[in-house]
Amino acid sequence: MSQQPAAVAGDRFYVCRLIPPRPSFVQDMTAEEAGVMQAHVAYWTELLRTGNVIVFGPVADPKGSWGLGVIRASDDDHLSQITQADPMGLMVWTPPTASACQSGGVRAHSRRRP
Questions:
Q1: Which of 14, 30, 47, 68 allows an S-S link to 53, with CB 3.0 to 4.6 Å?
Q2: pLDDT by residue (tens digit) across 52-111?
């Protein structure tokens, strides 16, 4: 397993939640959507390798699956560059909704496919 680069002063860590386009997405994605998901996973795997992502993966929530990622970025613009390049498409990020998510320099964001 490769080591992550050391944190740089000023780095921010963003806890991100990706909401699929529909609750049943994991069970019934089309072949085209499966191809996009493969590219999405490859993209996030590369971000993990380069140290821009700390951890990512699916969450098997009984209310519906969603994705979790912790992104290391220098600022909000850097975060936007990373997320807008995701093969899943341009996502809409919402501001943090819980003050507890902002403690320790961690900011929470959610995104939903338009």
A1: 47
A2: 999 999 988 888 888 888 999 988 889 889 988 999 864 544 444 433 233 234 444 444
Written as one letter, the residue type at 103 is S
pTM summary value: 0.73
Segment (H or E) for 79: helix 76-84
Integer Cα distance of 58 and 75 in angstroms: 25
Helices (H), ranges, 1-114 = 25-28, 31-50, 76-84
- How far apart are alpha carbons 94 and 10 in whole angstroms? 22
Place of tokens 């963003």: 14
How many domains, the chain?
1
- Assess if residue 1 is contained within a domain: no
With tokens 């069970």, the residue in question is 27
Q: Which domain holds residue 67?
A: 12-112
For 88, phi and psi rounded to 5 degrees?
-70, -10
